[in-house]
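**Backbone description:**
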Amino acid sequence: MSAPTDITSNPIDPSLAIQKEHLMPITPRPAICFVEGKGDYLYDQSGKAYLDLVQGWAVNTLGHSPTVIQQALLEQSAQLINPGPAFFNKPMINLAATLCSHSVFDQVFFANSGAEANEGAIKLARKWGQFHKSGAFKIITFQQGFHGRTLATMSATGKDTFAPLFEPKVDGFIKVPFNQLDATEQAIDKQTVAIMLELIQGEAGVIPADPDFVKGVEALCKKHNLLLIIDEVQTGIARTGSLFAYEQFQIQPDIMTLGKGLGGGVPISALLAKKHACCFEYGDQGGTFNGNPLMCASANAVLSTVLSPEFLPHINSVSEYFQQQLHTLSVTFGLGEVRGKGLLLALDTPHHSAPLIVQKALALGVLLNAPRENTLRFMPALNISHAEIDLGLACLTRILNDTQQAASC
């Protein structure tokens, strides 16, 4: 079983007239080009189908090209695409109202990416610090956390590989060990304005926050008059089995960010805040495409589907099945821990290279993700069926069987 070669050494079908040399090489890409997607599957230029258990890194909430998003985009594009950010539009107003009515927040700012929403959260916290904490500006974040790739959000991120990049970074981010409340409190000083965390550290290998730790962080914020910022770019919009992950921890953040799954595949994100934290003044924040009606129409279609009575029970039922099957696989092949919530799951592969498994699965027509050397991450469409889960795990079983047989020879 041969792994696919990198695009840099194997050109894409020239009939597509795609010239790869004009794309900046920011990541290794396999020598295929996807031309169509439907539900749980992607199709390349040769017509080969791939079962997608990554879905754009937890972006395609309802799978590829769902009918509800197609219809929403078609209808909205015939009415209004871009009036400009200085005007109201109906999809923007409706989306903000829906998000606030189903959360603890009062106001929303729409952006285009999770990193941009997190950048906005950082700015909002610092502005609040100027008004309410004598100019306090420091934000406590956590080791191995991930908040984006803008200069400020990279500075907030706790990934070791980010440390030497693009120096000097933005000052004011104090990183402490995840799930350690004492270390978090020790990092607070008079210049601290907020604590920012993910409830599941996805890029770290799907590491959940301990519920007692999260409640403790909320208590610290109240004790020291800090803002609690919850980054739900990956966990929001039902990914973990509730509309927002913070609901499962019985907390009330001051600020929350959304991205990825909000638009179901189109670029939209959101910064939500309680009224007491909403202190932007005219000109403080903006963006050319923020609140674009086309993107908001797609997000409205996603939320309409996710908020239907049967949707969340389906996620939790399928999650339970998926986790059971992963546990069985782990026991069968002597693998490691199964982690996560809803349909953001991970399987440790302590004696196997997860990136190599990803390559082999790609050759067999299954898309997987390896956030760490010995961890597989699963982020399928939230409406995935048991049958598709079985297909994906049958592929994994085949790869692990082949690996065992090769090792015994």
